[in-house]
């Protein structure tokens, strides 16, 4: 009996391995392309960040010189500062506004489908289109400032895209307008997944709605918040299109961001080594975000 069970148990792994064999064979080209393009390209980029490559890549090692030069460049430091300010404010406001809108829609309001479409529609637009639209809206000659001055308020000033101290605010307005809808939908899906009995129990106990959200609902939605956090953060690190469309990094370098610095260094100044070093630092930032998230996801599945 035990020998038969051992034979049967020993036969399970090969059988499991052969399950969906045709699907696994069909996925081999995609896996190979992924390994070759993404993993291979990443390793190639990191490798050449330690060289003095200029117009063409070459394996002339210079150690950490590119990184030392990178972190002593004012333009790179300004881009990191801008990304930090934009990222922190955008992350907080996107998560808060997304959850607030989702909580409102979860109350089964009238015309919910219409409101959901309105809030989600900006996400269907590319960042280039969003940037151009908000560049027109914030233009002082025919945008918000011109409209309000036309109403008689001649002292009204609102031209963030032309003010180095306020240009990040203009980028934030456009970024929030586009990205909040996606987070709202993710949060709404999480709220709709909560058992209705929980709401009934809190109402029976006389717990206010705001307290129910803070004490009960938000802790239960931890995986949803983590997923939204990863999506927003990875998008912030890759911020490029919106800046190019709205300000092109100006005024001066007031709205410079790391992704634009990498692009300009690689294709405008034709300094591959410096551009590879900057892109490697962006890769490290993304890895710092994704690795803990992947670990948490894997740990929760195992538990």
UniProtKB/TrEMBL annotation:
<dbReference type="Pfam" id="PF00528">
    <property type="entry name" value="BPD_transp_1"/>
</dbReference>
<feature type="transmembrane region" description="Helical">
    <location>
        <begin position="212"/>
        <end position="237"/>
    </location>
</feature>
<keyword id="KW-1003">Cell membrane</keyword>
<feature type="transmembrane region" description="Helical">
    <location>
        <begin position="276"/>
        <end position="295"/>
    </location>
</feature>
<dbReference type="InterPro" id="IPR051393">
    <property type="entry name" value="ABC_transporter_permease"/>
</dbReference>
<keyword id="KW-0472">Membrane</keyword>
<dbReference type="InterPro" id="IPR035906">
    <property type="entry name" value="MetI-like_sf"/>
</dbReference>
<feature type="transmembrane region" description="Helical">
    <location>
        <begin position="21"/>
        <end position="47"/>
    </location>
</feature>
<feature type="domain" description="ABC transmembrane type-1">
    <location>
        <begin position="80"/>
        <end position="295"/>
    </location>
</feature>
<feature type="transmembrane region" description="Helical">
    <location>
        <begin position="117"/>
        <end position="137"/>
    </location>
</feature>
<feature type="transmembrane region" description="Helical">
    <location>
        <begin position="83"/>
        <end position="105"/>
    </location>
</feature>
<keyword id="KW-1133">Transmembrane helix</keyword>
<keyword id="KW-0812">Transmembrane</keyword>
<protein>
    <submittedName>
        <fullName>Sugar ABC transporter permease</fullName>
    </submittedName>
</protein>
<dbReference type="InterPro" id="IPR000515">
    <property type="entry name" value="MetI-like"/>
</dbReference>
<keyword id="KW-0813">Transport</keyword>
<comment type="similarity">
    <text>Belongs to the binding-protein-dependent transport system permease family.</text>
</comment>
<feature type="transmembrane region" description="Helical">
    <location>
        <begin position="166"/>
        <end position="191"/>
    </location>
</feature>
């Amino acid at each position: 009996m035990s020998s038969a069970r051992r034979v049967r148990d020993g036969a399970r792994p090969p059988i499991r391995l052969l399950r969906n064999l045709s699907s696994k064979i069909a996925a081999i080209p995609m896996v190979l392309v992924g390994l070759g393009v993404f993993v291979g390209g990443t390793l190639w980029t990191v490798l050449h960040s330690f060289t003095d490559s200029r117009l063409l890549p070459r394996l002339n090692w210079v150690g950490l010189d590119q990184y030392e030069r990178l972190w002593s460049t004012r333009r790179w430091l300004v881009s990191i500062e801008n990304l930090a300010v934009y990222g922190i404010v955008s992350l907080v406001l996107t998560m808060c506004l997304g959850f607030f809108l989702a909580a409102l829609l979860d109350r089964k309001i009238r015309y919910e489908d219409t409101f959901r479409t309105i809030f989600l529609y900006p996400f269907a637009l590319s960042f280039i289109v969003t940037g151009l639209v908000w560049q027109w809206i914030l233009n002082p000659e025919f945008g918000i400032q011109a409209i309000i001055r036309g109403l008689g308020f001649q002292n009204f000033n609102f031209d963030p895209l032309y003010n180095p101290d306020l240009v990040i605010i203009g980028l934030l307005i456009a970024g929030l307008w586009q990205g909040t809808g996606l987070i709202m939908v993710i949060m709404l899906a999480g709220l709709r997944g909560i058992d209705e009995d929980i709401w009934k129990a809190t109402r029976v106990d006389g717990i206010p709605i705001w307290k129910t959200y803070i004490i009960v609902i938000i802790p239960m939605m931890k995986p949803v918040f983590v997923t939204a956090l990863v999506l927003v953060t990875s998008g912030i690190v890759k911020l490029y299109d919106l800046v190019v469309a709205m300000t092109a990094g100006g005024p001066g370098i007031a709205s410079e961001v790391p992704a634009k610095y990498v692009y300009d260094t690689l294709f405008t100044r034709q300094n591959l080594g410096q551009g590879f070093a900057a892109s490697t630092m962006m890769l490290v930032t993304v890895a710092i975000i994704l690795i803990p998230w992947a670990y948490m996801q894997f740990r929760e599945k195992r538990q």
